[in-house]
Write a structure and sequence with these properties.
single chain, mainly alpha, Farnesyl Diphosphate Synthase, 1% strand, globular, disordered N terminus
C-alpha cells in the first residue's frame, strides 16, 4: 500500500550505491588478514570478493530491513555473510571441474589469476568466514543469529544452492529437461540464496510477523526465478564485454535454458509474470518497500 502523503524513499540507484559502499566497507574489515599467514590465500579471497559484483544479495538484506524499519547497523553482518557465500560459490563454479570459465565480471577467474588449488581453498575459506561473520553481530540476540545460520546453511547446502548446481552439472549436455524440472533446478541453484537474503533481512527484526515473512519469501521466490530467466536471456542477447563473462556459454555447453524451452518472447513473458507476482506479494507493505518493488523491475530490465 502506497501512501502519497508519506515521504518518498531515495531512488533505487542511489540506494544501490549507498548500500554497496556500506557492505564493501564491512567486507573490507571482515577480510583483513590480521594473522598475516597464508598471504596468497587471503589475496585470492579479496580478489574474488572485490571484483565488481552487483551486490544484489546484500542489497536484498538491506532493502528487506528497510521495508521492516529494522536498524541499518543490524544488517551489516548478514549482508556480508550472504555475499561471502555467493562469492565462494562463483569461485568454485568457475573451476575446470564445473563450468570451466576464464572470465568473471570482466576479469580473470580466481583459478586463472592464482591456481586451482588456491581457488579451491579460497572458496572454502569464504564459506566458513560467512558463518563466522554472522556470529559477530552484537546487535542481535543469540536466537536470531541461530535462525540466520540455519537459514543460510539450508539455502547453500545440498538441499539448496549446492544441490541445484549438482542438478545443473548432471543435466549439462543432455538437452532433456522439462520446464518444471528447470524451475526446480534454478529454485535451488540461484533462488534459495536470494530467498535467504530476504530472510536474513527479515530475521534482523525481533519477532518478525509470520504473514510478512511469508509474503517476503514469496517475493524472493519470484525475483529469484526472474533473475535466472533474465540471465538466460542475456546469454543470448548481450555480449561478452557487457556481461563480463563469456557470452553464449550456455549454448556452447548445450544447457537447457528458459529461452531454449519457451523461446525468447516466451522467456521474457515469464520474467514479466514473475515480476508482477513479486509486486503482488508486497501489496500490504507501505512505501518503505518501494525499493524492493523497484529492484524487481531492475532485475528483469538490467543489461548484465
Amino acid at each position: 500500500m502506497n501512501d502519497s502523503k508519506l515521504p518518498l524513499t531515495p531512488p533505487l540507484t542511489e540506494l544501490m550505491q549507498d548500500y554497496r559502499q556500506k557492505v564493501d566497507k564491512a567486507l573490507d574489515q571482515v577480510l583483513k588478514n590480521t594473522s598475516n599467514i597464508a598471504v596468497e590465500l587471503h589475496q585470492a579471497m579479496r580478489y574474488s570478493t572485490f571484483n565488481g559484483g552487483k551486490r544484489i544479495r546484500p542489497l536484498l538484506v538491506y532493502l528487506t530491513g528497510k521495508a521492516l524499519n529494522c536498524p541499518a547497523e543490524h544488517l551489516d553482518a548478514p549482508a556480508c555473510a550472504v555475499e561471502l557465500i555467493h562469492c565462494y560459490s562463483l569461485v568454485h563454479d568457475d573451476m575446470p571441474a564445473m563450468d570451466d570459465d576464464d572470465l568473471r565480471r570482466g576479469k580473470a577467474t580466481c583459478h586463472k589469476q592464482f591456481s586451482e588449488a588456491i581457488a579451491l581453498l579460497a572458496g572454502d575459506a569464504l564459506q566458513t568466514l560467512a558463518f563466522e561473520t554472522l556470529t559477530h553481530n552484537n546487535h542481535l540476540q543469540d536466537s536470531q543469529i541461530l535462525q540466520m545460520i540455519r537459514a543460510l546453511t539450508q539455502a547453500s547446502g545440498a538441499a539448496g544452492m549446492a544441490g541445484g548446481q549438482a542438478i545443473d552439472l548432471a543435466a549439462t549436455g543432455s538437452q532433456v529437461m522439462s520446464l518444471d524440472n528447470l524451475k526446480i533446478m534454478h529454485e535451488h541453484k540461484t533462488g534459495d540464496l536470494i530467498r535467504a537474503s530476504v530472510q536474513l533481512g527479515a530475521l534482523s527484526l525481533i519477532n518478525i510477523d509470520k504473514n510478512k515473512l511469508s509474503a517476503l519469501d514469496h517475493y524472493a521466490k519470484n525475483i529469484g526465478l526472474s533473475f535466472q530467466i533474465k540471465d538466460d536471456i542475456l546469454d543470448i542477447e548481450s555480449d561478452t564485454e557487457t556481461l563480463g563473462k563469456q557470452q553464449g556459454a550456455d549454448i556452447e555447453l548445450n544447457k537447457v535454458t528458459y529461452p531454449s524451452l519457451l523461446g525468447l518472447d516466451g522467456a521474457k513473458k515469464m520474467a514479466q509474470e514473475c515480476h508482477q507476482k513479486a509486486l503482488q506479494s508486497l501489496k500490504n507493505f507501505d512505501h518503505n518497500a518501494d525499493p524492493l518493488r523497484s529492484l524487481s523491475e531492475y532485475i528483469i530490465t538490467r543489461q548484465h
